[in-house]
Amino acid sequence: MTEPRAPGCPMSGATDSLTLRPERLTDSWSLTPRGALMQAQRYEDGRALLKDPALAQAGFLAKVAGNVQGAAHPPVLYMQGEEHVEMRRATARYFTPAAVNGYGPMIARLADDLIAELLRKGEMNVDDLSLRLAVQVASNVVGLTSSRLPGLERRIEAFVSGGLDSAPDAHNRLSPLRDTLMGGAVSLFFMLDVKPAIEARRRERQDDLISYLLDRDYSDQDILTECITYATAGMITTREFITLAAYQMLQRPDLRAEYVHSTEPARHAILHELLRLDPVVAMLYRRAEQDTVVNGQPLAAGTTFAINVQAANADPDVMGADAGSLCPHRTLPRGVPPQGLAFGDGPHRCPGAFLAIKESDMFLRRLLLWNDLTLVRHPSVGYNEIVKGYELRGLRVRLGSPTAQA
To answer: Per its UniProt record, what CDD domains does this chain match (predicted)?
Structure first.
């Protein structure tokens, strides 16, 4: 006997993903070799690889980050073993549900200010609003609150959009001009944002990440690399997800109505399902530093694994026969989170997962509650090879009628 389906599931056809790249899918869900690179597209394979403590972080410019001149400590994203466990345990207090709830008034104030600006101007791009929100929220957590000039979000965007490919087998060859521009973007970020924050916290510690790093005797260069990591892995990804979620709900009046009139847990369930279908980071990488065995198969040291998060999140063996459809209330096997592997898993699971959903929800509900919020222009869909995820640009909305604005 078939179980009754939850209301609104599935909400449309074979796939509700806006950003799926078919060329990244193969005919098999199993591990498929490509030289020294093996791709995992099944959910259980991907989760097993991410949970394996013997596999090191790869991709996301891990090799570059580990060789930054003057840096004595690698960013926490690339740490391994006991050092990584200790650092994650110490910094987890900034991202616990209790800590994130404490950020609530700050997030509410920022969201209200942005929507008030939209109301004044009449039309704005959601991707611009979400960038400012994501950067300002994360900056408060990290401690980047003493900038010498406004425009932090654009400085971060400049070095994230530098044209690099973070795949471990990528050959990044920038022109001298592009290399100079990227170096200049990082230098501006350091001089205008990171250095002033360090100086302020050397005078007086605060409850943020930079203060903690100073207590651990991190150098300015160490703190810069950590801030770049948080900017890339946290601020930019949250920006993209907020834009995607807004676009999905603007296109689906039934989903939008269900979202804005639901309780917080139900709203979070909708956001998790949107993230499952369109994970911002669609590909994660791990490397075997020594000979190992995966799924009973012996593999040599140096083997790199590409975990295709978007494919794994649509694995019908785990997510159900309608895995490509939007269903915020789907029944999942025990231990499978509603967003699948979108926040990773294992030792390097995203520490800011709860914060990302919380701030997305607080902004989106305020935005989508307005009955006269309308879609003016559909966004273009591009891809950022540093983040290994999508970029939505130009999602323009109008708040208020043209007559009222005039």
So the answer is: cytochrome_P450
Which of these, 189, 268, 281, lies nearest to 237 by C-alpha position?
A: 281
Residue type, 298: P
Residues forming beta bridges with residue 125, ordered by sequence position: 396
* Residue 72 counted as domain residue: yes
Structural domain boundaries, residue 248:
22-29+62-280+339-405
The answer to the question of residue 351 being in a domain is: yes
Task: Locate 375 and state its tokens.
Answer: 């879609």
Question: 80 and 332 in contact (C-beta within 8 Å)?
Answer: no
Task: Judge whether 247 and 126 are in contact, CB under 8 Å.
Answer: yes
Task: Give the count of domains, the chain.
Answer: 1
Placement of tokens 């995966």 in the chain: 294
H helices present in 34-175, as ranges: 43-51, 62-65, 81-91, 97-102, 104-121, 126-142, 152-160
Burial (0-12, 13-18, 19+ Cβ within 10 Å), 37:
middle
The pTM assigned to this predicted structure is: 0.90
Residues 128 and 124: their CA atoms lie apart, in Å, by: 8
Q: What CA–CA distance (Å, rounded) separates 400 from 405? A: 7
CA distance 274 to 50: 22
% of the chain residues with pLDDT over 90: 60
pLDDT one-digit tens code per residue, 347-373: 999 999 999 999 999 999 999 999 999
